[in-house]
Amino acid sequence: MEIHLWQCVLVGLWTAFCITGMLTGTYLTRCLVMAAGVGVILGDVQTGLAMGAVGELAFLGFGVSSGGSVPPNPVGPGIVGAVLAITMKGQGIDAEAALAYSFPFAILVQFLITGIYTISTGFPEKARRAVDAGRYGRYCLLANGTILMFAGAGFVIGFASAFHAQGLGNLIAAIPEWLTGGLGTAGKMLPAVGFAVILSVMCGWDTGPFVILGYGAAAYLNVPVIGIALFSAAFAWILYERKEGADVHPGEAEENISAKANGLENTKAGVAENTENGGKTDRTTGVQPLPDTELKRISRRTALRAYFLQNGYNYGNYEGLSYSFVLFPALRRLFPAEKDLKRELKDSMSYCSVNPNFLPILTSLHLTSLNCGLSGGDTRDIRTAMMGPLAGIGDSLVQFCIAPVFSTLGASLAEQGSMAGPVIFLLGINSLLLALKLSNEALGFRLGNSLAGRMQGYLAPLSLAARRVGCAVIASLAVSSVDIRASVSLSGQGKELFSLQDFLDTLFPGALPVFYTAMLFYLLRKKKWGMYRLVGLTMAVGIVLHGAGVLA
């Protein structure tokens, strides 16, 4: 297949656009989305959807770092794999084989991204100097430096993949057939790695019964994924209600964090008079207090800027530089004097690491306390204390519950050749996450500092319920999406007398996929294997056992 120059440019632009989704949290950097876009550009939507579905399931758990390792990047199968699957379809390369071939590129892309994060480490200090000099344009550029480098790298990756597709095809064509078949088998096994990674985070004694529920419903009753999610959610809801009935106290965390926050209520009385008397500037911090209605409007706008939280992500202060950029317009409104603005802007560049969807809780707390006459430094300890619980709850809820559900739904539709798969995935998950951001802003503004304690006490059962649903769904996917089939059989007199796969299907349907996923889970949880070792093992098992005639 010939790829024109304009198609190479479009693939490059599409890759640049999608790869920034890693930072904006819009879930554009998913195999399901990227491969579908490549299919549209290259004129083969069905192959793009097939590649997207296979890659999405295989990389489902790869957004989670395990044991300190850096997970492979889905740009590999989403872009490079899609180009290979489309351009080499006539040479016997299907989506599973393209997935296996694209894995080295997934590793290379992640190394490139790690390099970008390392380069960006010096940006916070440069941004502070820019603020001191009053060069706010340079400050904004530095605060968005990481995402700009992402976009540039993405264009190069996409353009090069399409422009040199023929060269990649020639290289792959030189690979012997036994290796090609083995890589195809390994590609069908790779989803087990992602499922094992997610289960290693979610699965425990309190979620084990739901793993059995998911396996049994999928293997013996052929219940679809959505049905399993609904059934498990109903059971989890019942258990949650029982837990809520037994535990009426929100927990000790509320007392610990509220103790630090008591000063805010005392401070409000001291500065309320300033607000009532025309918004006079507080002489201590330089803040110009705003009426609640206007502050609420600014807080809501700041919540929408949570999409910028990782635009300047770096290995120095992580999200700290971007956090200050999120607050920048609000700080300008609260601090009319430039010296006060500079002080608060630099103070907000301290360490920050929180899930972007729960960031509005911190920003609403920050703005409310500033409006009360406290400086950012006065409430830094409170915000830092809240980061851990909010990051844990946010990551568990989004990565291990919301994202897998939408991913599996979108992938199942894409497997059927429906463009509704990536569309529903993008619209569904982004609508839900936008609602989550806005609701968190409302909660943060209304409940203030005690919110973290309330969440830690009341939402722990909800987090457990989410993990239970996730475990049931992943267990069912191990049956339906990991394709491991035995080819061992006994024949006599020209007839097949015994088939190992038929025997297993009769006694334990989906036994091989579930066993292999469980083995990877054991190696990950008990033996502390890294993700790359698991992938390497899977590739080796697929190639060796296919070559030996054990696996189909």
Automatic annotation (TrEMBL):
One of its GO terms (cellular component) is plasma membrane. InterPro entries: GatZ_KbaZ_carbometab, PTS_IIC_man, PTS_IID_man. It is a multi-pass membrane protein. It is found in: Cell membrane. One of its GO terms (biological process) is phosphoenolpyruvate-dependent sugar phosphotransferase system. The chain crosses the membrane at residues 6-28, 40-64, 98-119, 139-162, 193-213, 219-240, 506-524, 531-551. Keywords: Cell membrane, Membrane, Phosphotransferase system, Sugar transport, Transmembrane, Transmembrane helix, Transport. It holds the Pfam family EIID-AGA. Its main location: membrane. PANTHER family: N-ACETYLGALACTOSAMINE PERMEASE II COMPONENT-RELATED, TRANSPORT PROTEIN, PTS SYSTEM. This is PTS system mannose/fructose/sorbose family transporter subunit IID. It comes from Candidatus Enterocloster excrementipullorum.
